[in-house]
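pinging the channel bc i need a second pair of eyes. not urgent but kinda urgent?? the chain im working w is below, pasted from the shared doc
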Amino acid sequence: MSAERRVRVAGALTALLLSIAAVPADAHNPTPAPYGRSWSITEVSAGSTYDWDASVPAWLKPYVQDVLQTQWASSTTNNSKHVVFRQQAGGSATVYFTNSTGVAACNNLPGWLGCASGAGSTAWKIWLRRSPGQPWCQLNLVSGCWDVERIGIHETGHIGGFLDHMDTSESDTVMTPVPANRPESGWSTHHLQRCDEARMQILYDVASLAGGYANCFDHIPGHGPTGLYSVVSAAAPLTADCYGAGLTLTGRLSVKTDSNYGALSGNSLPSRTVFLDRRPMGSAAWMIDYASVATDGGSSTNWSRTFSVSGSSGVTTYEFRAHFKGESGLDADYSPVVGLTWSNPC
């Protein structure tokens, strides 16, 4: 792409952004910040219908539909709750294919490729340019062409509640103000990237608590060493009993409660593994990963493990601590130490 064209495209998209909401840029935050009005939880559940303007040709419809209904909602790249878009005759929103839009920022700049308005509204609009300076790749696969789905997922990001972010790469977000064209890296990306998913999760929560968290939380306020802080607790309702009796540790593995984490704050973390370390009372040496347990879907506690010790007389005390080793987007954590005692007599 020529420097002139790159500047024109950047200027068009930036002007569009500023026409919707004048939000100061944060040069160090890799997650696109929300702009305009985000969808409410009720609206996310209800979904959004759209229809084609008469300007949209038959060849274009499958590609736009793929972006709005498949790529946007792909569970492999977007484990977030999200508004579901459905094409329906007479739908509330509209897709256009035209060289003139209802957004002045696009009309006044010659290099625009796509525009969107109505973020967080059921009456949103997306415009794709009928005659860009370089062809659409779906019609003419040549160097410098534009992939209509790459532009489409960017505009879908706008109506889903994103803001362009200028200080990151195509591998982080589809919301770069200057999209890539063929054969630049990311020119054919059709789905949300990790930092887009992170913003969606903060706004609307994860779609599945057992699913993954986006690996792009390391710059939000209150973040941990690599992602969101996790919290693992451990307690025992009964801490002493006779030899041979079972003493049970219970606890909860969750995302830390922090208002900076938005809808993710305090989330339970099922389908993970909690490891238990053990040491004799008075020893400094832990037996690492002495035992393990899978977390379940419980809300107040989501794991438990029972231990017993054999003996004939005297007292035996072991100290236990639970730990979570972390995963992409979530940092590790250790619980406080809990002592369990077996004895005879008891």
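so Residues 245 and 308 are 6 Å apart (CA to CA). and Residues 3-20 form the longest helix (18 residues). — does that match what u expected or am i reading it wrong
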